[in-house]
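dude i think i finally got it to work??
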Amino acid sequence: MVHFQRMPIETEGPELIGYDNIAHNLAESSFTDLRLSDLGIDGDVSDLPLQYIDHRGTDELRVAIAADTVDPETVIATAGAAGALFLIAVTLLESGSHALICRPNYSSNLETPRGLGADIEHIELRFDNQWRLDIDDIARRLRPDTELVSICAPHNPTGQTITEEQLRALVALVENHGRARLLVDETYRELAYEQPLPVASSLSSRAISVSSMSKAYGLPGMRIGWLSTADSELYERILACKEQMSIAGSIVDETLAARVLQRREDVLGKIKPIVAERRDIVASWMERQTMFDWVAPQAGVVCFPRLLIADPAEATRFWAQLLDEQKTYVGPGRWFDLDERFFRLGFGWPSTETLQDGLDVLEKAASTLTRAEW
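look at this
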């Protein structure tokens, strides 16, 4: 029997608290929720026949996803990145399966393997090491029965990424191993501040890539994600799993997502300057205040600062008070199985004005605490 548990990030998400109850929402991990009209996309689907579609995803969508990076025949459209991660986990893992999974991480990357009863070893990313992924440590911890090596790059919640050399080294590890698969959650790939990494699945049939419309495009309500694998046998197994869950996706969502992705360069060209502006606002704020420190992000719209106080329990009380009294919300460390003094700060979702106001509130509230290095 499979036992899944709701994680704190699921039970305490802003959508459950109620957006009207939050004045400064700094907890989100996506770009500002957009309307199709904001992107200049035609949202009229009134003449669309509401029929079953190709179980893999419409041809139009898979071609748009693939663009110049992968073969459309390697792509399966899913219900968000979470749907892709679920399909991969239940296809590759069972009770006792050995998996190496980086932590902190997006909740589905952790909870689905955990619920399946997999034998999980965490690849711990640490603030003191700049949240860097240690490739040599992964190599040392590979076992003959390892089924999965799972990373997130660019990383949620820290905003860090890896180099192309490191990605290729990970690919070489799983290829030489012969059994393990490399899963790369690439949801923020298109919001890299420098050159984006290659799509992992384009480098090897032992690598699986996952992404979605939710984070970089600010379209989480569209519920479109995807995975890509060049391993035809694994592709068929994952597709069979999807067919048992949902048969196919929604023709409405897939049609609209294809329209957005067909204008990818124009859409992202408008989003990226806003992300850069808001990232710079956070960087300036970090320089002038004294109660928080961070590792500056390299991609995406999130970072993972820490509150400089001695007691994690005091941090828990502080976050609760911040929301109750100031209506300012961040993602506390418990969302990621970490010390409560860490928190995810999202800077892509709020407006520029709301972001600045929220940071000011955060700084003022923290000034009442006693600073302590740790």
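The mean pLDDT is 96.
im so relieved honestly
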